[in-house]
Amino acid sequence: MGFRMRLFCLLLFLNPALLSAEVVKEYDEGGRLKFESNLKGGKLNGFAREYNNLGVLIWEGHYKDDELEGTAKGFYSSGKLQWVMRYKRDRLNGKAKGFYESGPLWWEMSYREGKPHGRSRAYYEDGKLWKEMNFKDGKLDGIVLEFDGKNLKQKSLYRRGAKAGL
Q1: pLDDT for the residue 81
Q2: How many structural domains does the chain have?
């Protein structure tokens, strides 16, 4: 017996609940796969994927006890990556990034406990900075800069979500 098979048998011996996992699939009226996920103990656990009406993957993520946990990705109907976000206990947590369908970075934002928190930036499709802002507990807080592709176009100051000057 090979190493992988021995490891698999050991894991089953230590955790027989692994056998109770099942893959659930949902299909549309035309018989095309719409959604698939692992189900353990009646809850979403493990991978999950959603497809559009053409069968193209448009979303994938991981669940733990019915809550999003870890990295989730969204895709354009072309199949290209649209965004990447991190979740912790079903709430956005950590870096999130969005991309133009042509590939370049469109925006990047940090989240804490489901709310924007920290520096965020948005870019023109050519990669030049468009906007830069800071969030604190989900509210704009600090200087917001907007560029026209080359030069600073506008500068604003926000405190706890309200415009404060500049």
Answers
A1: 98
A2: 1
